[in-house]
Amino acid sequence: MCIIYTYMWQEQKIKIAVDAIVFGYSNNTLNVLLVKQKFGLLKDTWVLVGGFVQNNEALKDAVARELKEEAGIEVNYLEQLYTFGDDINRDPRDRVISVAYFALVNSTELHLTADTDADDAQWFPIYNIPKLGFDHNKIIEVALERLKNKLSYQPIGFDLLPEEFLFSELENLYCTLLNKEIDRRNFRKKFLSYNVIEETNKMGGKGTGRPAKLFKFNKQKYQLLEKEGFHFDIKFA
Amino acid sequence: MCIIYTYMWQEQKIKIAVDAIVFGYSNNTLNVLLVKQKFGLLKDTWVLVGGFVQNNEALKDAVARELKEEAGIEVNYLEQLYTFGDDINRDPRDRVISVAYFALVNSTELHLTADTDADDAQWFPIYNIPKLGFDHNKIIEVALERLKNKLSYQPIGFDLLPEEFLFSELENLYCTLLNKEIDRRNFRKKFLSYNVIEETNKMGGKGTGRPAKLFKFNKQKYQLLEKEGFHFDIKFA
DNA sequence: CATGTATGTGTAAATAATACACAATTATAG
DNA sequence: CTATAATTGTGTATTATTTACACATACATG
Asked: Which CATH architecture has domain B15-150?
Protein backbone atom coordinates (compact mmCIF):
# COMPACT_ATOMS: atom_id res chain seq x y z
CA MET A 1 0.00 0.00 0.00
CA CYS A 2 2.89 2.39 0.46
CA ILE A 3 2.82 3.13 -3.23
CA ILE A 4 3.65 6.77 -2.87
CA TYR A 5 6.83 6.02 -1.04
CA THR A 6 7.83 3.26 -3.41
CA TYR A 7 7.85 5.77 -6.23
CA MET A 8 9.72 8.34 -4.28
CA TRP A 9 12.67 5.97 -4.20
CA GLN A 10 12.65 5.83 -7.93
CA GLU A 11 13.61 9.37 -8.94
CA GLN A 12 10.90 10.92 -11.08
CA LYS A 13 12.29 12.35 -14.30
CA ILE A 14 9.18 13.85 -15.82
CA LYS A 15 9.11 17.49 -16.83
CA ILE A 16 6.04 19.62 -16.73
CA ALA A 17 5.20 22.27 -19.28
CA VAL A 18 2.24 24.48 -20.10
CA ASP A 19 0.99 25.29 -23.58
CA ALA A 20 -1.56 27.85 -24.63
CA ILE A 21 -3.96 27.56 -27.53
CA VAL A 22 -4.88 31.16 -28.21
CA PHE A 23 -7.83 31.73 -30.48
CA GLY A 24 -8.44 35.02 -32.18
CA TYR A 25 -11.17 36.07 -34.54
CA SER A 26 -11.00 38.62 -37.32
CA ASN A 27 -12.39 38.97 -40.80
CA ASN A 28 -14.84 36.19 -40.07
CA THR A 29 -11.99 33.80 -39.53
CA LEU A 30 -10.84 31.93 -36.49
CA ASN A 31 -7.09 32.14 -35.96
CA VAL A 32 -4.60 30.37 -33.75
CA LEU A 33 -1.47 31.95 -32.35
CA LEU A 34 1.75 30.10 -33.12
CA VAL A 35 5.41 30.83 -32.47
CA LYS A 36 8.48 29.66 -34.29
CA GLN A 37 11.08 27.65 -32.41
CA LYS A 38 14.45 29.37 -32.68
CA PHE A 39 16.73 26.74 -31.20
CA GLY A 40 17.08 23.07 -30.59
CA LEU A 41 15.83 19.97 -32.31
CA LEU A 42 12.72 21.65 -33.60
CA LYS A 43 14.35 24.89 -34.77
CA ASP A 44 12.15 26.69 -37.30
CA THR A 45 9.07 24.59 -36.70
CA TRP A 46 5.92 26.29 -35.51
CA VAL A 47 4.52 25.40 -32.12
CA LEU A 48 2.05 26.66 -29.55
CA VAL A 49 3.12 29.26 -27.05
CA GLY A 50 4.44 27.39 -24.05
CA GLY A 51 7.31 26.37 -21.87
CA PHE A 52 8.35 24.72 -18.66
CA VAL A 53 6.80 25.58 -15.35
CA GLN A 54 9.02 27.15 -12.74
CA ASN A 55 9.42 25.51 -9.36
CA ASN A 56 7.49 28.16 -7.49
CA GLU A 57 5.03 29.17 -10.10
CA ALA A 58 1.33 28.37 -10.34
CA LEU A 59 0.35 26.70 -13.59
CA LYS A 60 -1.85 29.55 -14.67
CA ASP A 61 0.91 32.04 -13.89
CA ALA A 62 3.28 30.07 -16.07
CA VAL A 63 0.85 30.37 -18.97
CA ALA A 64 0.37 34.08 -18.47
CA ARG A 65 4.12 34.55 -18.32
CA GLU A 66 4.73 32.60 -21.51
CA LEU A 67 2.03 34.52 -23.30
CA LYS A 68 3.62 37.77 -22.32
CA GLU A 69 7.18 36.68 -23.02
CA GLU A 70 6.63 34.88 -26.29
CA ALA A 71 3.91 36.99 -27.84
CA GLY A 72 3.47 40.05 -25.67
CA ILE A 73 -0.25 39.57 -25.15
CA GLU A 74 -2.79 39.33 -22.41
CA VAL A 75 -5.92 37.33 -23.05
CA ASN A 76 -9.62 37.86 -22.40
CA TYR A 77 -10.34 34.36 -21.32
CA LEU A 78 -8.18 31.53 -20.04
CA GLU A 79 -9.17 28.08 -18.90
CA GLN A 80 -7.41 24.82 -18.43
CA LEU A 81 -8.10 22.52 -21.35
CA TYR A 82 -6.48 19.15 -20.83
CA THR A 83 -3.26 17.60 -19.64
CA PHE A 84 -1.41 15.68 -22.29
CA GLY A 85 0.65 12.97 -20.72
CA ASP A 86 -0.37 9.62 -22.17
CA ASP A 87 2.05 9.67 -25.05
CA ILE A 88 5.42 9.03 -23.40
CA ASN A 89 7.32 10.35 -26.40
CA ARG A 90 5.36 13.47 -27.24
CA ASP A 91 8.55 15.43 -26.70
CA PRO A 92 11.54 13.84 -28.44
CA ARG A 93 14.00 15.05 -25.80
CA ASP A 94 12.50 13.99 -22.47
CA ARG A 95 9.30 12.80 -20.95
CA VAL A 96 7.25 15.97 -20.78
CA ILE A 97 3.71 16.34 -19.59
CA SER A 98 1.92 19.39 -20.86
CA VAL A 99 -0.98 21.15 -19.22
CA ALA A 100 -2.76 22.85 -22.11
CA TYR A 101 -4.71 26.06 -21.65
CA PHE A 102 -7.34 27.48 -23.87
CA ALA A 103 -7.38 31.24 -24.41
CA LEU A 104 -9.48 33.75 -26.29
CA VAL A 105 -8.59 37.21 -27.53
CA ASN A 106 -10.01 39.64 -29.95
CA SER A 107 -7.22 39.47 -32.45
CA THR A 108 -8.29 42.57 -34.36
CA GLU A 109 -7.19 44.67 -31.42
CA LEU A 110 -4.07 42.69 -30.80
CA HIS A 111 -0.42 43.58 -31.25
CA LEU A 112 1.89 40.63 -31.35
CA THR A 113 5.30 41.54 -30.05
CA ALA A 114 7.82 38.80 -29.87
CA ASP A 115 10.87 39.95 -27.97
CA THR A 116 13.63 39.56 -30.45
CA ASP A 117 12.06 39.03 -33.79
CA ALA A 118 8.66 40.19 -35.00
CA ASP A 119 8.21 37.12 -37.18
CA ASP A 120 8.38 34.87 -34.18
CA ALA A 121 4.72 35.02 -33.31
CA GLN A 122 1.98 34.87 -35.90
CA TRP A 123 -1.71 34.20 -36.42
CA PHE A 124 -2.70 31.23 -38.55
CA PRO A 125 -6.23 30.67 -39.79
CA ILE A 126 -7.64 27.51 -38.30
CA TYR A 127 -8.14 25.90 -41.70
CA ASN A 128 -4.50 26.45 -42.57
CA ILE A 129 -2.39 25.30 -39.65
CA PRO A 130 1.02 23.95 -40.70
CA LYS A 131 2.49 20.76 -39.35
CA LEU A 132 3.54 21.69 -35.84
CA GLY A 133 6.15 20.36 -33.45
CA PHE A 134 5.34 17.85 -30.70
CA ASP A 135 1.67 16.84 -30.57
CA HIS A 136 0.51 20.40 -30.98
CA ASN A 137 -1.73 19.75 -33.97
CA LYS A 138 -3.62 17.28 -31.83
CA ILE A 139 -3.86 19.76 -28.99
CA ILE A 140 -5.36 22.35 -31.29
CA GLU A 141 -7.96 19.83 -32.43
CA VAL A 142 -9.00 19.20 -28.85
CA ALA A 143 -9.13 22.93 -28.18
CA LEU A 144 -11.26 23.61 -31.23
CA GLU A 145 -13.69 20.94 -30.17
CA ARG A 146 -13.93 22.56 -26.74
CA LEU A 147 -14.45 25.98 -28.24
CA LYS A 148 -17.27 24.75 -30.44
CA ASN A 149 -18.99 23.03 -27.56
CA LYS A 150 -18.67 25.89 -25.12
CA LEU A 151 -19.99 28.39 -27.60
CA SER A 152 -23.44 26.89 -27.22
CA TYR A 153 -23.72 26.91 -23.48
CA GLN A 154 -21.39 29.67 -22.30
CA PRO A 155 -21.17 33.23 -23.58
CA ILE A 156 -17.53 33.01 -24.60
CA GLY A 157 -18.09 34.24 -28.13
CA PHE A 158 -17.90 37.78 -26.78
CA ASP A 159 -14.29 37.25 -25.79
CA LEU A 160 -13.47 36.84 -29.45
CA LEU A 161 -15.21 40.06 -30.45
CA PRO A 162 -14.40 43.68 -29.72
CA GLU A 163 -16.07 45.29 -26.70
CA GLU A 164 -18.74 46.72 -29.01
CA PHE A 165 -19.89 44.69 -31.94
CA LEU A 166 -22.53 44.42 -34.60
CA PHE A 167 -25.18 41.77 -34.41
CA SER A 168 -24.04 40.57 -37.80
CA GLU A 169 -20.56 40.00 -36.42
CA LEU A 170 -21.90 37.92 -33.56
CA GLU A 171 -24.05 36.00 -35.97
CA ASN A 172 -21.14 35.39 -38.32
CA LEU A 173 -19.02 34.14 -35.48
CA TYR A 174 -21.59 31.53 -34.54
CA CYS A 175 -22.23 30.56 -38.15
CA THR A 176 -18.56 30.23 -38.95
CA LEU A 177 -17.48 28.31 -35.89
CA LEU A 178 -20.44 26.00 -35.68
CA ASN A 179 -20.58 25.65 -39.42
CA LYS A 180 -24.32 26.08 -39.51
CA GLU A 181 -26.77 28.37 -41.20
CA ILE A 182 -28.78 30.43 -38.82
CA ASP A 183 -32.00 32.34 -39.29
CA ARG A 184 -30.97 35.90 -38.63
CA ARG A 185 -34.29 36.84 -37.05
CA ASN A 186 -34.49 33.87 -34.71
CA PHE A 187 -30.88 34.25 -33.69
CA ARG A 188 -31.36 37.88 -32.77
CA LYS A 189 -34.65 37.21 -31.04
CA LYS A 190 -33.20 34.48 -28.87
CA PHE A 191 -30.06 36.38 -27.96
CA LEU A 192 -32.01 39.48 -27.04
CA SER A 193 -34.45 37.45 -24.97
CA TYR A 194 -31.59 36.60 -22.62
CA ASN A 195 -31.17 40.26 -21.76
CA VAL A 196 -27.43 40.09 -21.54
CA ILE A 197 -26.49 42.15 -24.55
CA GLU A 198 -27.31 45.80 -24.69
CA GLU A 199 -27.75 48.31 -27.43
CA THR A 200 -25.28 51.20 -27.36
CA ASN A 201 -26.19 54.48 -29.01
CA LYS A 202 -23.29 54.22 -31.41
CA MET A 203 -23.50 53.00 -34.96
CA GLY A 204 -20.88 50.78 -36.48
CA GLY A 205 -21.57 49.77 -40.05
CA LYS A 206 -18.85 51.05 -42.34
CA GLY A 207 -19.62 49.51 -45.73
CA THR A 208 -22.66 49.64 -47.92
CA GLY A 209 -26.18 48.99 -46.68
CA ARG A 210 -28.17 50.27 -43.77
CA PRO A 211 -25.93 51.27 -40.84
CA ALA A 212 -26.11 48.98 -37.83
CA LYS A 213 -26.25 49.57 -34.11
CA LEU A 214 -23.35 48.54 -31.92
CA PHE A 215 -24.14 46.20 -29.07
CA LYS A 216 -22.22 45.10 -26.05
CA PHE A 217 -22.28 42.17 -23.71
CA ASN A 218 -23.17 42.94 -20.10
CA LYS A 219 -21.03 40.45 -18.24
CA GLN A 220 -22.12 41.60 -14.80
CA LYS A 221 -25.74 41.05 -15.67
CA TYR A 222 -24.95 37.64 -17.07
CA GLN A 223 -23.16 36.57 -13.90
CA LEU A 224 -26.07 37.77 -11.83
CA LEU A 225 -28.60 35.86 -13.88
CA GLU A 226 -26.39 32.80 -13.81
CA LYS A 227 -26.46 32.77 -10.02
CA GLU A 228 -30.23 32.84 -10.17
CA GLY A 229 -30.19 29.68 -12.23
CA PHE A 230 -30.20 31.08 -15.74
CA HIS A 231 -28.63 28.87 -18.38
CA PHE A 232 -27.16 30.36 -21.51
CA ASP A 233 -28.05 28.08 -24.40
CA ILE A 234 -27.70 28.83 -28.09
CA LYS A 235 -28.57 25.99 -30.42
CA PHE A 236 -29.64 25.78 -34.02
CA ALA A 237 -31.66 23.52 -36.23
CA MET B 1 12.61 33.94 -26.70
CA CYS B 2 14.59 30.87 -25.76
CA ILE B 3 12.39 30.45 -22.73
CA ILE B 4 12.32 26.72 -22.85
CA TYR B 5 16.06 26.51 -22.69
CA THR B 6 16.32 29.10 -19.96
CA TYR B 7 14.22 26.92 -17.72
CA MET B 8 16.08 23.79 -18.54
CA TRP B 9 19.09 25.31 -16.91
CA GLN B 10 17.13 25.74 -13.76
CA GLU B 11 16.49 22.17 -12.67
CA GLN B 12 12.75 21.49 -12.42
CA LYS B 13 11.83 19.98 -9.07
CA ILE B 14 8.14 19.45 -9.55
CA LYS B 15 6.63 16.02 -9.00
CA ILE B 16 3.65 14.75 -10.83
CA ALA B 17 0.95 12.60 -9.33
CA VAL B 18 -2.43 11.28 -10.32
CA ASP B 19 -5.49 11.07 -8.11
CA ALA B 20 -8.76 9.32 -8.75
CA ILE B 21 -12.16 10.42 -7.55
CA VAL B 22 -14.17 7.23 -7.71
CA PHE B 23 -17.91 7.60 -7.38
CA GLY B 24 -20.13 4.71 -6.50
CA TYR B 25 -23.86 4.57 -6.00
CA SER B 26 -25.81 2.29 -3.74
CA ASN B 27 -28.87 2.55 -1.54
CA ASN B 28 -29.79 5.79 -3.26
CA THR B 29 -26.57 7.34 -2.04
CA LEU B 30 -23.57 8.63 -3.90
CA ASN B 31 -20.30 7.45 -2.39
CA VAL B 32 -16.67 8.35 -2.81
CA LEU B 33 -13.80 5.93 -2.46
CA LEU B 34 -11.11 6.95 0.02
CA VAL B 35 -7.99 5.29 1.34
CA LYS B 36 -6.16 5.78 4.58
CA GLN B 37 -2.56 6.89 4.51
CA LYS B 38 -0.40 4.42 6.39
CA PHE B 39 2.90 6.25 6.54
CA GLY B 40 4.43 9.68 6.45
CA LEU B 41 3.30 13.09 7.50
CA LEU B 42 -0.33 12.38 6.81
CA LYS B 43 -0.44 8.94 8.43
CA ASP B 44 -4.02 7.94 9.27
CA THR B 45 -5.68 10.71 7.30
CA TRP B 46 -8.04 9.77 4.51
CA VAL B 47 -7.16 10.72 0.95
CA LEU B 48 -8.14 9.94 -2.60
CA VAL B 49 -6.59 6.96 -4.35
CA GLY B 50 -3.46 8.21 -6.05
CA GLY B 51 0.27 8.31 -6.32
CA PHE B 52 3.22 9.39 -8.36
CA VAL B 53 3.48 8.70 -12.05
CA GLN B 54 6.28 6.43 -13.20
CA ASN B 55 8.78 7.67 -15.73
CA ASN B 56 7.53 5.48 -18.55
CA GLU B 57 3.90 5.33 -17.68
CA ALA B 58 0.98 7.03 -19.38
CA LEU B 59 -1.10 9.13 -17.01
CA LYS B 60 -4.19 7.01 -17.46
CA ASP B 61 -2.17 3.86 -16.85
CA ALA B 62 -0.90 5.33 -13.62
CA VAL B 63 -4.46 5.87 -12.48
CA ALA B 64 -5.52 2.36 -13.41
CA ARG B 65 -2.51 0.95 -11.59
CA GLU B 66 -3.21 2.92 -8.43
CA LEU B 67 -6.83 1.88 -8.47
CA LYS B 68 -5.85 -1.73 -8.68
CA GLU B 69 -3.04 -1.52 -6.12
CA GLU B 70 -4.77 0.61 -3.53
CA ALA B 71 -8.33 -0.62 -3.80
CA GLY B 72 -8.31 -3.64 -6.09
CA ILE B 73 -10.93 -2.28 -8.44
CA GLU B 74 -11.49 -1.62 -12.09
CA VAL B 75 -13.86 1.13 -13.05
CA ASN B 76 -16.66 1.51 -15.59
CA TYR B 77 -15.78 4.97 -16.64
CA LEU B 78 -12.64 7.07 -16.38
CA GLU B 79 -11.97 10.56 -17.62
CA GLN B 80 -9.47 13.25 -16.87
CA LEU B 81 -10.98 15.86 -14.58
CA TYR B 82 -8.55 18.67 -13.95
CA THR B 83 -4.91 19.26 -13.12
CA PHE B 84 -4.34 20.83 -9.76
CA GLY B 85 -1.16 22.83 -9.81
CA ASP B 86 -1.90 26.41 -8.87
CA ASP B 87 -1.45 25.97 -5.16
CA ILE B 88 2.30 25.61 -4.73
CA ASN B 89 1.92 24.09 -1.30
CA ARG B 90 -0.89 21.65 -1.85
CA ASP B 91 1.49 18.91 -0.76
CA PRO B 92 3.41 19.82 2.40
CA ARG B 93 6.49 17.82 1.37
CA ASP B 94 7.29 18.98 -2.16
CA ARG B 95 5.81 20.83 -5.06
CA VAL B 96 3.42 18.26 -6.49
CA ILE B 97 1.08 18.73 -9.40
CA SER B 98 -1.81 16.31 -9.49
CA VAL B 99 -3.75 15.23 -12.54
CA ALA B 100 -7.13 14.26 -11.15
CA TYR B 101 -9.29 11.62 -12.80
CA PHE B 102 -12.94 11.07 -12.41
CA ALA B 103 -14.23 7.49 -12.25
CA LEU B 104 -17.55 5.74 -11.93
CA VAL B 105 -18.35 2.29 -10.65
CA ASN B 106 -21.40 0.45 -9.50
CA SER B 107 -20.41 0.11 -5.90
CA THR B 108 -23.07 -2.44 -5.06
CA GLU B 109 -21.18 -4.99 -7.12
CA LEU B 110 -17.81 -3.89 -5.89
CA HIS B 111 -15.34 -5.64 -3.64
CA LEU B 112 -12.75 -3.37 -2.15
CA THR B 113 -9.54 -5.24 -1.52
CA ALA B 114 -6.71 -3.24 -0.17
CA ASP B 115 -3.52 -5.26 -0.23
CA THR B 116 -2.49 -5.41 3.33
CA ASP B 117 -5.38 -4.23 5.40
CA ALA B 118 -9.07 -4.37 4.55
CA ASP B 119 -9.80 -1.13 6.37
CA ASP B 120 -7.51 0.77 4.08
CA ALA B 121 -10.05 1.49 1.39
CA GLN B 122 -13.60 2.54 2.15
CA TRP B 123 -16.70 4.13 0.70
CA PHE B 124 -17.87 7.42 2.18
CA PRO B 125 -21.26 8.94 1.41
CA ILE B 126 -20.80 12.23 -0.38
CA TYR B 127 -22.59 14.17 2.34
CA ASN B 128 -20.25 12.79 4.97
CA ILE B 129 -16.71 13.14 3.68
CA PRO B 130 -14.17 13.65 6.47
CA LYS B 131 -11.44 16.25 6.35
CA LEU B 132 -8.97 14.83 3.86
CA GLY B 133 -5.26 15.28 3.30
CA PHE B 134 -3.82 17.68 0.75
CA ASP B 135 -6.49 19.58 -1.23
CA HIS B 136 -8.55 16.47 -1.75
CA ASN B 137 -11.77 17.89 -0.36
CA LYS B 138 -11.56 20.58 -2.98
CA ILE B 139 -10.88 18.04 -5.70
CA ILE B 140 -13.98 16.09 -4.73
CA GLU B 141 -16.02 19.26 -4.96
CA VAL B 142 -14.83 19.85 -8.49
CA ALA B 143 -15.52 16.25 -9.41
CA LEU B 144 -19.02 16.35 -8.00
CA GLU B 145 -19.77 19.45 -9.99
CA ARG B 146 -18.57 17.70 -13.12
CA LEU B 147 -20.64 14.64 -12.38
CA LYS B 148 -23.78 16.69 -11.92
CA ASN B 149 -23.22 18.55 -15.15
CA LYS B 150 -22.39 15.52 -17.23
CA LEU B 151 -25.39 13.62 -16.01
CA SER B 152 -27.60 15.91 -18.06
CA TYR B 153 -25.87 15.65 -21.37
CA GLN B 154 -24.06 12.31 -21.33
CA PRO B 155 -25.46 8.93 -20.36
CA ILE B 156 -22.99 8.30 -17.56
CA GLY B 157 -25.63 7.55 -14.98
CA PHE B 158 -25.65 3.97 -16.24
CA ASP B 159 -22.06 3.51 -15.15
CA LEU B 160 -23.23 3.98 -11.59
CA LEU B 161 -25.96 1.37 -11.88
CA PRO B 162 -25.85 -2.38 -12.32
CA GLU B 163 -26.02 -3.74 -15.88
CA GLU B 164 -29.74 -4.27 -15.43
CA PHE B 165 -31.72 -1.81 -13.41
CA LEU B 166 -35.19 -0.69 -12.54
CA PHE B 167 -36.57 2.51 -13.91
CA SER B 168 -37.14 3.65 -10.37
CA GLU B 169 -33.44 3.23 -9.66
CA LEU B 170 -32.48 5.36 -12.64
CA GLU B 171 -35.01 7.93 -11.61
CA ASN B 172 -33.75 7.97 -8.04
CA LEU B 173 -30.21 8.43 -9.23
CA TYR B 174 -31.14 11.52 -11.20
CA CYS B 175 -33.34 12.90 -8.44
CA THR B 176 -30.70 12.37 -5.79
CA LEU B 177 -27.71 13.70 -7.68
CA LEU B 178 -29.43 16.66 -9.27
CA ASN B 179 -31.43 17.32 -6.14
CA LYS B 180 -34.62 17.85 -8.09
CA GLU B 181 -38.06 16.39 -8.12
CA ILE B 182 -38.97 14.71 -11.33
CA ASP B 183 -42.29 13.69 -12.76
CA ARG B 184 -42.01 9.94 -13.02
CA ARG B 185 -44.10 9.74 -16.18
CA ASN B 186 -42.27 12.46 -18.05
CA PHE B 187 -38.91 11.12 -17.03
CA ARG B 188 -39.72 7.68 -18.31
CA LYS B 189 -41.30 8.99 -21.48
CA LYS B 190 -38.29 11.09 -22.36
CA PHE B 191 -35.76 8.42 -21.60
CA LEU B 192 -37.64 5.83 -23.62
CA SER B 193 -38.02 8.26 -26.52
CA TYR B 194 -34.24 8.20 -26.94
CA ASN B 195 -34.36 4.48 -27.69
CA VAL B 196 -31.16 3.71 -25.87
CA ILE B 197 -32.53 1.71 -22.99
CA GLU B 198 -34.19 -1.60 -23.56
CA GLU B 199 -36.62 -3.71 -21.62
CA THR B 200 -35.30 -7.10 -20.61
CA ASN B 201 -37.74 -9.92 -19.91
CA LYS B 202 -36.58 -10.19 -16.33
CA MET B 203 -38.32 -8.67 -13.37
CA GLY B 204 -36.44 -7.09 -10.54
CA GLY B 205 -38.59 -5.65 -7.80
CA LYS B 206 -37.92 -7.39 -4.53
CA GLY B 207 -39.95 -5.48 -1.96
CA THR B 208 -43.61 -4.73 -1.73
CA GLY B 209 -45.67 -3.30 -4.59
CA ARG B 210 -46.07 -4.23 -8.20
CA PRO B 211 -42.97 -5.98 -9.57
CA ALA B 212 -40.96 -3.94 -12.03
CA LYS B 213 -39.24 -4.76 -15.28
CA LEU B 214 -35.47 -4.67 -15.53
CA PHE B 215 -34.02 -2.41 -18.20
CA LYS B 216 -30.59 -2.09 -19.65
CA PHE B 217 -28.67 0.58 -21.46
CA ASN B 218 -27.67 -0.22 -25.03
CA LYS B 219 -24.33 1.52 -25.30
CA GLN B 220 -23.68 0.42 -28.87
CA LYS B 221 -26.93 1.91 -30.02
CA TYR B 222 -26.18 5.11 -28.17
CA GLN B 223 -22.79 5.45 -29.83
CA LEU B 224 -24.36 4.85 -33.20
CA LEU B 225 -27.01 7.49 -32.67
CA GLU B 226 -24.39 9.87 -31.35
CA LYS B 227 -22.45 9.62 -34.60
CA GLU B 228 -25.60 10.52 -36.47
CA GLY B 229 -25.87 13.73 -34.50
CA PHE B 230 -28.08 12.64 -31.63
CA HIS B 231 -27.64 14.59 -28.41
CA PHE B 232 -28.49 13.04 -25.10
CA ASP B 233 -30.17 15.66 -22.97
CA ILE B 234 -32.01 15.14 -19.71
CA LYS B 235 -33.25 18.28 -18.04
CA PHE B 236 -35.94 19.06 -15.54
CA ALA B 237 -38.18 21.89 -14.54
C1' DC C 1 -59.67 -11.35 0.48
C1' DA C 2 -58.88 -6.64 1.79
C1' DT C 3 -55.20 -3.36 2.19
C1' DG C 4 -50.82 -1.21 1.21
C1' DT C 5 -47.31 -0.08 -1.92
C1' DA C 6 -44.88 0.60 -5.97
C1' DT C 7 -45.37 0.15 -11.14
C1' DG C 8 -47.25 1.46 -15.61
C1' DT C 9 -49.66 4.43 -18.82
C1' DG C 10 -52.26 8.91 -21.87
C1' DT C 11 -53.88 13.49 -22.75
C1' DA C 12 -54.50 18.43 -22.60
C1' DA C 13 -52.23 22.93 -21.88
C1' DA C 14 -48.34 25.78 -22.06
C1' DT C 15 -44.02 26.89 -23.74
C1' DA C 16 -40.29 27.07 -26.97
C1' DA C 17 -38.42 26.50 -31.64
C1' DT C 18 -38.89 27.09 -36.37
C1' DA C 19 -40.09 28.91 -40.87
C1' DC C 20 -40.79 32.72 -43.42
C1' DA C 21 -41.13 38.15 -46.12
C1' DC C 22 -40.99 42.83 -46.41
C1' DA C 23 -39.91 47.71 -45.03
C1' DA C 24 -36.09 50.92 -43.66
C1' DT C 25 -31.56 53.09 -44.32
C1' DT C 26 -27.46 54.19 -46.43
C1' DA C 27 -23.70 54.10 -50.35
C1' DT C 28 -22.89 53.89 -54.99
C1' DA C 29 -23.48 54.26 -59.93
C1' DG C 30 -25.59 56.24 -63.63
C1' DC D 1 -30.90 63.55 -58.11
C1' DT D 2 -32.67 59.19 -58.93
C1' DA D 3 -32.46 54.28 -59.21
C1' DT D 4 -30.20 50.34 -57.55
C1' DA D 5 -27.74 47.33 -54.58
C1' DA D 6 -26.66 45.99 -50.08
C1' DT D 7 -27.44 45.33 -45.32
C1' DT D 8 -30.25 46.10 -41.10
C1' DG D 9 -34.43 45.61 -38.52
C1' DT D 10 -38.85 43.59 -37.28
C1' DG D 11 -43.67 40.08 -36.46
C1' DT D 12 -46.62 36.16 -36.91
C1' DA D 13 -48.30 31.57 -37.87
C1' DT D 14 -46.92 26.70 -37.48
C1' DT D 15 -44.85 23.05 -35.38
C1' DA D 16 -42.46 20.54 -31.88
C1' DT D 17 -41.27 20.00 -27.15
C1' DT D 18 -42.10 20.29 -22.35
C1' DT D 19 -44.91 20.31 -18.57
C1' DA D 20 -48.75 19.17 -15.53
C1' DC D 21 -51.65 15.91 -13.93
C1' DA D 22 -54.75 10.93 -12.11
C1' DC D 23 -56.04 6.39 -12.15
C1' DA D 24 -55.71 1.35 -13.07
C1' DT D 25 -52.55 -2.68 -12.38
C1' DA D 26 -49.85 -6.25 -9.98
C1' DC D 27 -47.96 -8.29 -6.23
C1' DA D 28 -47.10 -8.95 -0.91
C1' DT D 29 -48.74 -8.96 3.51
C1' DG D 30 -51.76 -9.73 7.21
From this structure: Alpha-Beta Complex (3.90)
Instruction: Say how many Å lie between the first and final Cα of chain A, rounded.
Output: 54
With 0-12 / 13-18 / 19 or more C-beta atoms within 10 angstroms meaning exposed / middle / buried, residue A118 is exposed
Enumerate residues 133 to 152 of chain A having a beta carbon within 8 A of any beta carbon in chain B: none
Q: Where does residue B229 fall: left (phi above 0), alpha (psi -120 to 50 degrees), or beta otherwise? A: left
Query: Residue A107: what pLDDT?
Result: 75
Q: What percent of chain B has pLDDT over 70?
A: 92
Q: What is the dihedral of CA A67, A70, A73, A78, to 10 degrees?
A: -20
pLDDT digits (tens, 9 = 90+) for A141-195: 999 999 999 999 999 999 999 999 999 999 999 999 999 999 999 999 999 999 9
Which residues numbered 163-192 in chain A sit less than 7 A from strand C, measured from CB?
Answer: 183-186, 189-190
Give the architecture-level CATH label for domain A163-228: Orthogonal Bundle (1.10)
pTM of the predicted model over 0.90: yes
Q: Kindly report, as residue ranges, where domains of CATH 3.90.79.10 are found in chain A.
A: 15-150
Q: Is the CB of B210 under 7 A from strand D?
A: yes
Residue B137 CB coordination number (10 Å): 13
Mean pLDDT, rounded, for B15-31: 96
Which residues share a beta bridge with B31?
B24, B125
Mean pLDDT over B199-220 rounds to 93
User: What contacts A222, CB < 8 A, 6 or more positions away?
Assistant: A155, A196, A232
Q: Is the CB of B186 under 7 A from strand D?
A: yes
DSSP symbols for A88-100? TTSSSSS-EEEEE
pLDDT tens, residue by residue, B70-129: 999 999 999 999 999 999 999 998 999 999 999 999 876 667 765 555 468 999 999 999
In angstroms, the separation between the Cα of residue B85 and the nearest Cα of chain A is: 6
B158 phi, psi to nearest 5 deg: -65, -25
Q: Closest Cα partner for B54 from B63, B62, B66, B64?
A: B62
Whether nucleic acid strand C comes within 7 Å of the CB of B213, the answer is: yes
Q: Residue B22 and residue B31: Cα distance in Å, rounded?
A: 8
Does the structure's ipTM exceed the value 0.90? yes
> Which regions of chain B carry the CATH code 1.10.10.10?
163-228
Within 8 A of A14 by CB-CB distance, chain B residues are: 16, 53, 55
**What is the predicted pLDDT for the residue at A197?**
97
Residues of chain A with pLDDT under 70: 1-9, 108-110, 113-119
